[in-house]
Amino acid sequence: MECKVSWNGPTGMSFLAQTGSGHLVNMDGAPEGGGHNLAPRPMEMVLLGTGGCSAYDVVLILKKGRADVRGCECTLKAERAETEPKVFTSIHFHFTVTGKDLKPEAVERAVKLSHEKYCSASIMLAKTANITHSFEIIEA
């Protein structure tokens, strides 16, 4: 896996990232840091990537268990250290899983497996952050 991140020029703090799979992602800094607030911050990208990684796992685990899952949202709330390096110190994942006759035990198991075994991103971030999770099920 590889990617390339390029600074967009001397008038701000925006960057363009290109993934190895050929996708482009813009990033920008906060106005107080010289950015123009036109795209997500790099640390927001880390957080959303972690949410995507974990939500992917949850859906895949439920589908493999033949659950009739029809939707999955992952809302993340994070806190960062006050001083440099401003690593994440806590992250809470809340999953809203929609489906037909979903069993709470199956959703709980999928979330747990993601965080303890499969989601490389959240397992990495757990080295500095307290990771917690919750979920709710919506009947389709």
From TrEMBL:
InterPro entries: KH_dom-like_a/b, OsmC/Ohr_fam, OsmC/Ohrsf. Pfam families: OsmC. Signal peptide: none annotated. NCBIfam families: PRK10738.1. This is OsmC family protein.
